[in-house]
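Why does this matter for the project? Reviewers at the last site visit asked to see concrete outputs rather than summary tables. In response, this paragraph embeds two records directly. Each consists of the residue sequence and, immediately after it, the corresponding structure tokens. Nothing has been edited or filtered.
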Amino acid sequence: MTVFGGRLSINIEGANGQRAAYAKVGDRADVFSGKPSMVYLPSEVKYKVVAETPNLDVGISKAPSEVDWPPVLVKPNDAMERSVGVGNWERKVYTAIGDNIRAQRLIVGETFNPPGNWSSSPPHKHDTKGVDEAPYEEVYFFKIKPSQGFGLQRIYTPPDDEDPFDLVYVVEDGDTVVIPRGYHPVVAAPGYELYYLWILAGEERKYGAWSDDPRHSWIKNTS
């Protein structure tokens, strides 16, 4: 559970009777105002969320799980922060549910594109098993500042793919894009900050297990 803005309290009851409670979770007015707060919930739990502020805005990310590990509160300073890329493909990435959480398939984080900048660049994919790549499904949920702005997302397969596609979406504030496979770069329109919550689901659960489009990986040598 991601707190996009506002504050909540949550009471959790596990299938084995274990209980947990977290009060006043959330430390930002909106996604552009600070680091993420998240709550990891294991499978087969009951939970009750209480809005502590009138502007509460949350998102729920899910993946199948057969394990019963304990819930975890991820505070803003617990998220791993990275500055990735250079120049007009530099962005800030927070991994909130990753190696710090015992989970079976789920990895969750946030990416912030400055106006006009690219992310998921060089274009990468994670849909096959390889030396550096593991298969993951992924979902992006977008927010834009100011909210009338937009970005673009391209999703495309390698030239030798047996079932090729090449799609470009205009993404606006509140849009969601499902990425079952293929390379998937994103760009923010000039003048508009672009945010997306990214949710990865896969068996190996290793952040960075992807491969770059070899036609565009040369840009890494410009940093």
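We now turn to the second protein, recorded in exactly the same manner.
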Amino acid sequence: MSVQFPRIFRQTSPMRSFVSSFTCLLALFGVAAAAHGQGAWTLTTADFQSQRVDLDSITAAEILVAPGTRQRSSPPEHIPFTRLLVLQRSERLAPVAAAPFIVNLNGGDSAAGQPLGVDAEKLSWMTPSLGKISLPLKNVGAIVRAGAAARSAPTTRQTDDAVELLNGDSLRGIIATLDATTITIQQPGGEKTPVPLESVLRITFASTAPPAGASGASAARPRGFRVSMTDGSAITCSRVQLARGADQPLQIVVASDPANTRSIPLAGVAAIEQVNGPVIWLSSIEPAESISNPMFDLPWPARMDRAVDGSPIRFGDRVFAHGIGVHSYSRLMFNIDTDFKSFRTQYAVAGDWSYANVNVRIKLDGKLVHEKTGFRSGQLAPPVQIDVSGHKQLILEVDYGQNYDVQDRFNWIEPAFLR
């Protein structure tokens, strides 16, 4: 795109220069106003409809937004939390200075920063966005060096702690101490080995609970808000609040520490997603049954919020935060809570695989309610929405197609129960 500079740079008359300059300023103002009118945020409601908006404020029960095309004198629109799915920046924000590590918590939260120490079964963690926070060790899954390859949650419980080093070596045992500079691991023979934190790639903690998504009735899981920040953190909060007015910070209450209220500059917030609200992602629920049975290859366990090979779930230029990656043959069964009214999903082959060919089935209590045979790559299935009222079990099945199991990597995209 070429840029044409205004002719004022070639004018000699002061008056003509002033008029031209004023005209340019008006034009630039119009461009800025138009950009602002597009809405700085994208609001997605529980019906999966999205619109660009400007954020006005957040109260204890609702979010107030102004449609991006509204007139400045128009009142804000009230969106109750019963309708809110996610509010995210329309444009990607520049990340803040990188933190050395990311701590991944069971349940999907993460926090960029570095460890300060461990005391009374709690990890003290320093973050760029929240400052010092305290995390129950029972909720900590791993501490990973920033930029390390992502991994899916393990499909079986890990019975000991593991430390992987940048040089490829690893140690297993029990983590005895951890602070800002050193981690000490006690190995099975009783020997304690100190390791400089600067040489660590990944620390994986022994499992104290089932590794898959949260289990149990959805009613037992309170509603919360996952706040994603530009430093790479994503923290679930029991409450979020934003006062009306320019430059007001977002007030949050961290769910792991209800007595701890924090303020975050809104400029550092990338998204606010409601958790356990009107939409429950299947990737946050532990399956009642998970079967992976390729015809020729080794099993490919289902991965939550990742493709089956560990890469992000995507179709074309779109990347989806929620989904389940599988490989044929795959069968996933989920129990249906009584407050779930419908199930919604899209699906696609994960990648451009010329031989991929699968048969897709969705069943309720063993009865077929949706089927697509000979499904190939390059297609994004339109949304499938199914009434699940009164039913007890949902089954998602990806079967061999015309080419057996060759290249049959498959993504369930944004599968969710709706209340």
